[in-house]
Amino acid sequence: MRFRKKSKVDADIPNSSMSDIAFLLLIFFMVTTAFAARKGIDFRLPKESEDVEQLDQVDVKAIEIEVLASGRILINKIPKNIRDIQPTIRPQLAIDPKKFVIIVVHNEATYGDMMDVLDELKEANVQNIALPSKEEIRSWM
């Protein structure tokens, strides 16, 4: 009796380790990829010992900018437009470049209006910007 040998080769691709390779590639790309973080507003906090002493010695009057729900703004309780911020603030900053600007945003005001005010202040080279919390605003009143 003669036995025939199989001369036909199977065309199967061995995929037993395919999932292992996929997980290794996934981990490799997750580790080596640099995630781009969106940069927010850059604030520099003052050094505690130096600036606190300076504030006690100098009478600092701040500029208050109120952002209303309607999109209008008040600069020291006077109604103004967004484009009036720089012409109003620059003369005061020429006298005292470290003058504080306090931005009070109403609850119904949009985020875009607040960012427009911050952009105008940045273009005016304002060094000291304060965004008080609701508790701080209540304590002032």
Plain-language structure description:
This protein is an alpha/beta fold and 141 residues long. It has a domain at 48-140: Nucleotidyltransferase, domain 5 (2-Layer Sandwich). It is built from five helices and five strands, in the order ααβββαβαβα. The protein has helices spanning 18-32, 48-57, 85-95, 111-123, 134-140, and strands at residues 63-67, 73-75, 78-80, 100-105, 128-130. It has a five-stranded mixed sheet, with helices on one face. A hairpin with a 2-residue loop joins strand 2 and strand 3. The radius of gyration is 31 Å and the shape is rod-shaped. The model is unreliable at 51-60 (pLDDT under 50).
Which labels suit this protein?
5 strands; Nucleotidyltransferase, domain 5; single chain; alpha/beta
Main sheet: strands, sense, barrel: 5 strands, mixed
Identify low-pLDDT runs: 51-60
Number of helices, counting only DSSP H or I runs of 4 residues or more: 5
**Overall geometric form:** rod-shaped
Specify Rg, calculated over alpha carbons.
Answer: 31 Å
CATH architecture of one domain: 2-Layer Sandwich
Quaternary state reads single chain
The run of helices and strands is HHEEEHEHEH
Give the % helix. 25-40%
Mean pLDDT: 78
With strands numbered from the N-terminus, the spatial order across the biggest sheet is 3-2-1-4-5
CATH class of one domain: Alpha Beta
In percent terms, what proportion of residues is strand? Answer: 5-15%
Structural class: alpha/beta
Count of extended strands: 5
Distance between the termini: 109 Å
CATH fold description of one domain: Nucleotidyltransferase, domain 5
